[in-house]
Amino acid sequence: MKCPNCHTREMVIIEMVVSGERVALHSCSSCDLRWWESRDGMLTLSGVLDLATVGR
Fold first, then answer.
1. How confident is the model over 30-56, as a mean pLDDT?
2. Would you say the pTM of this structure is higher than 0.85?
């Protein structure tokens, strides 16, 4: 995978399951661009936090 900003392949990808949904944080080691993805596409940080929030 390449960074969409600087096109380097020096990436850190952290995959996890949040509330039953597999998500991945992509972080470029070169330009520091970060983004989240799920199987349905891109997620905002607030979208990931909404998944991780337990309703009371």
1. 89
2. no
